[in-house]
Amino acid sequence: MAEANPAFSASTVSTHSKGPLGNNMLSAVESILDPAALILSLWLVSAGIEGELRPPYLILALIVFSITFPGTSRLQFSIKRLVFDVLYSWFWVVLLLLLLGVATGYMNEFSSEALITWLWVAPLSQIGAHLALRATAPYLLMLQGPPQRAIIVGMNDQGAALAGRIHETRYSKIELSGFFDDRSPNRLNQAANSQLLGRLRELPGFVKENRIQYIYLSLPMASQPRILHVLDELKDTTASIYFVPDMFITDLIQGRSGTVCGTPVISVCESPFTGSNGIIKRASDIVLSLLILALISPLLLIIALAIKLDSPGPVIFKQRRYGLDGEEILVYKFRSMRVCEDGESIRQAQKGDSRITRIGAFLRKSSLDELPQFVNVLQGRMSIVGPRPHAVAHNEIYRNLIKGYMIRHKVKPGITGWAQVNGYRGETRTLDKMQARIDHDLDYLRNWSLRLDLHIILKTIMVVFRDRAAY
Question: Whole-angstrom Cα distance, residue 331 to residue 377?
Fold first, then answer.
């Protein structure tokens, strides 16, 4: 197994307060809702009473944000509980701000009328914001696409309870397809018996054919051999897997504890880019891609002209690759060969390959042929850092040869990656080399951080100037 740089390693098991529900947009809105309502109400009260927004109110806004971010999820609360929870939380925020103000003497910088007005306007704005979110939540869910399909492995009381909570939970995009279990019908939970989909040996095929996104393992700890067998069989899928029982496993991909519709779970295989991490990753991709494209735009025009003059054919080569969750995407590259192969069988480029053009040899050696993929990043198909996308034909070969190969598709493919900066760039002649590349990709998923991404980007620049592995 590839070793990640200890300086950039994250803890194997962390906590995730929102839980692996997959409602990233709603979670992001909820995390900013309370701070935004409090700060906007403060600014409006200040501007309305004092006629301007003075610096002390800006400083107070920063303090309020640091105290209240991220906001509390209250979508599942009753109206009565929502009001009580907002008022209760606001009481403690006000008490803390009051103590700080008295201790520092900073309260003298504010208008008494403005503070007293904000004291009752702030919680009302919070309640109003949460009610507005409830009204718009169905539309936000629609923007995230179709429901995410789930299955439960183990038709026991705990599995049936989870199913009941999924069905009862409002504003959830999880659509439960049913259960898998090997036991005879008379030993199963009768309330959920009608939802039995099949036996465990049929599970991997069903997951792949029906594009299941979530798998919840509700199996007793005594079933460890059966659990390990199920996990092994599911490594050829991109489904996110969670344990419902309270148990420990050592080989986790972004292992987190959380809840699904109020039921505690532990993720076994999950994307690192959930919740705020997803926002940070996407924002960094957009900012860096725009900056890089602005800087290299003259170089892109020169390369395009050189390709046109060197050999007949298109400037941009489009090839089908597997992207996030194993979905096919089109990846852009500067054409470096006389042929544009994208069929069932694709031969990897080799040293001295006759298909490579004169300008193409230079582009591939310097990795300049990859530059159009910054457009793919802006489109949302790729990320700057992530597992490198392989041709669809190569994927279909290696997914059957390497266990866990498809797990790398839990994230968007990258222009560069952890494997590439550790010597696994270019042609992979042996299965061992491809295995090592996949090990590094999975290591990246386990240990992701923004700092690690920046480290890989900087290391990529150095590798490109001295690497001789790419043909």
Answer: 10
